[in-house]
Structures are given as C-alpha cells and as structure tokens.
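WARN retry 2 of 3 for item q-0093 after timeout on previous attempt; input resubmitted unchanged.
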Amino acid sequence: MDKNHIVHLLENHGIELKPELDQHFMLDDVMIEKIIETAEIGKNDTVFEIGSGIGTLTKEIAKKSKKVIAVEFDKRFEPVAYEITKDLKNIEFVWGNALKEIEHRDFDVLISNTPYSICEALMQRLIYKKFRSAVLSVPKKFSEILFAKKGYKRYSKLSLIVNAFFKIELKYSIPKNAFYPIPKMKSVIIKITPLNMGYYKKHKEKYILTQIFLHKKRKLKNAIREAIISFGELENRKITKRQAKGIVKNLGNIPERFERLKLEDFESLIYKLKRSMF
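OK item q-0093 returned
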C-alpha cells in the first residue's frame, strides 16, 4: 500500500489523524498478507473487522471472504474508505461503536487493528460470541497480560479468565514502520481460537471457571452452583441442585458478587472446587 497515495487521499479530504486516539493505519503489504494468512479466511466466511479506518486492510479481507462487516468509529474516514474499496461489493461499512455492534452480529472470523483503549473490553465481548478464530494486532504490553503465567508480574484476573476460554497464539511482531503514522508502542499479531469440549474434558477446572464467568450476573454462590451442575453434564453425571448447593456451602465464605473476586480469591476458589469434585 503506497504511503504517499494514502497521505494524499487524507489531505484531499482534509483529514488529520489523531494518534492519541490510536489512529494508526497498517500500510505494510507483508504484514497485511500475514494477517490474512493467519486468519485462514474461507470464501463463504463473514468477517467482522474492528477499526477498519480507511479500508486498507478491509480491501484485502474482502477479496478472500463472502462478506466483511467493517466497523470504524471515526466517520471522517468514510469518503476515503469508499474510494479505496470502490471495486468491491461485499463490504458493509458501519460507522459507530464496534463494542456495541459486535453484540448483535454473527461472523466466522474477527480481524482487528485493536485500539489499546478497547483491548480488554473486546476480549470480554468475544467470550459471549460464537466464531472460528480472531486475529488481532494489539499493543505488545497488552499481549503480555494474555500470555502471563501464574507468578509473573503481568499475570491478572484477565489472564486467568481469557485463557480459560481461548487458545491464544503469538504469531508475529509488527515493525513500527508498518503503520502510518508510526506509533510509540510496539505491536504484535495474535490469534485467538475458542477452546472446545474435548479440551475441557482434559482441563476440568477451566471448564468450571468458564461457567462461573458466564453466570457472573447472578449472585456468586448461584453462579458457582450453576457451574457445578454444568460440570456434571460435561462428565455425563447428574448433579442435582441440592447436591450443588451442598458443595457451595462447603466452600466457606464467598463474596456476594463476581466482580469482588480478587485474583487470589479466584485461584483459591478453583482449588477448593477441584478438591471437592475431581
């Protein structure tokens, strides 16, 4: 993608980029191709793209897929995006909030040049979606949270929860000059794949954690009870509501709400459940 051509288009439309809003466009053809290859897009796939910007990556996604839902918050980019993608008819541009849009959209693959400000919120949204894979460019600092192991500095509640739902792979480091304008932070490309039931049969504690999280709007004791009942279904054994309540009672003092659980509380809870059930 020719940088001078992009700069010229932006200037013609009087658009000044705002790096403080994470407005950095990927123009490097090699990195764009790596994202496309990593996503393994099929000709019948619907792709949800977050942060489509002026459409440089959108254009390449559209060539491989059945449909692209390209979401961009900054409507100033609309005329440039339409000009860059004018020869393609399978793109639906949405000018608005991607975190709201994703809640009512179905897709096979998600691709995102993810602004730092929404990284954590996006990961939490993905937990509730059905999709085959997601390929994200994210700040290196954020990726360190996702890959952090217990005992490491950046290990957090997010690290624990996200890795209970997904297989996360570090694919590539992105040179800063792959973006325009050049960002201050280093970025990487990661691939996210939802874990399947076969995995959970071998990692039972992670399955219970996912079920607690999926019921987090309930009181925590009730969320744990439902998680225990769901675990019984995974194991092909019936655990009654009464039995589940008994297990919860034996766990001792539990905070009322999921949000009040600290990282160490999570780990203690999973340990107690393992001792009670496995």
